[in-house]
Amino acid sequence: MFIENRQKISKGFDVQLIILYIIFVMIGWFSIFSSSYDPVAFNGIFNLDTPYGRQLVWIGTSILIAIVILFLDSRIFQNYAYHIYLTCLILLILVLFVGTEISGAKAWIKIGPFSLQPSEFMKMATALALAKFLNEGKTGSEKRNTWLLCFVIILIPVLVIMLQKDTGSALVYASFIVLFYREGMSGRFFIWGAFIAVIAIVTLYLNELYAVGLLVIIFLIYILANKNARRNIRKPLVVLGIGIAFVFMVNVIYENVFEPHQKQRIDSLLGKTSDPKGIDFNLNQSKIAIGSGGFAGKGFLKGTQTKFNFVPEQSTDFIFCSIGEEWGFLGSLAIVSLFVYLVFRIIWLAEKHRNPFVRYYGYGIAGIFFFHFLINIGMTIGLVPIIGIPLPFISYGGSSLWAFTTMLFVFINLNDA
Question: pTM value?
Fold first, then answer.
């Protein structure tokens, strides 16, 4: 009942997205192989005791998942979007009770020798739920609450993920701002968001006194430049009061929500501390590996930093280091270009589709892909804090590969209808 004769309705699957997927998966496997290859212990590429052997299993099962998705009736994803969201949310909550802790985060469900991370699938489920909600076309008084309800759909999984102490995965949900901006959210929200970020950074980098002083200066400038504000000063004063309260909340959140290693990474990024042999070790080794690749790289299997395990998590969160070292600036530029093209291809297809649901979903996952590759690559070169999120299709891991495969091929399926 879930599979229909697609020849009657099919426009043809987008070949470019499928080719991009294959390219990414191949690059990922060769990078994982290179970063974990040991010529002494090598016993074939299908050795399940090695990351590259296990990744072959994930790739094979991901291809099966992709094929199954392509043969499903595309209406399933629209009609059952809320059901998929609730199912993933239940799995996410289940992790709190039966989950296994890895690297400080209790985000995995152990199934025999394998581990499943529901938060990876929750991103796709949230994109579907938002697409269905926006597609329902609220009117009148309900329309005024649209953005608020969208934030509720996002906030629920974010809070659960925060309880799992997986801050990196929780931050990914900020990527839905791409969807909201496309669908008409006022630019004032983004200005306020940027302003809040600046105040938070000033508070953490200096202290509360400097941040409050900055708020007061901005308040006075606004009052002096705006006659209407002087006549009705109550609203600006309320905003100032909320801003001052936020300043003092920043340190409360910083001290009580973030884990010690996360606080150390933030302090290191802000330049408040320097610990080359401690918290900065990962980043320093990452920069050395990427920098040593030069313009054209050292060549396949010739990366010394990654080959001799100087870079921690070199096949997962720091897989980009292997690419940078072995293929240099040209290889790194190729990866960035491929991801940019992937995002723009999804957006272009979403814009031209006649079904608004496909546009909503397309922008939702385009934001997720963009956020992942931007933050992952940014943290390997020191532009953003190390928050531990994978590079889509390339980093080692079954859950992330399955989730990103599902995310992309659901869009390919929807775009075909």
Answer: 0.84
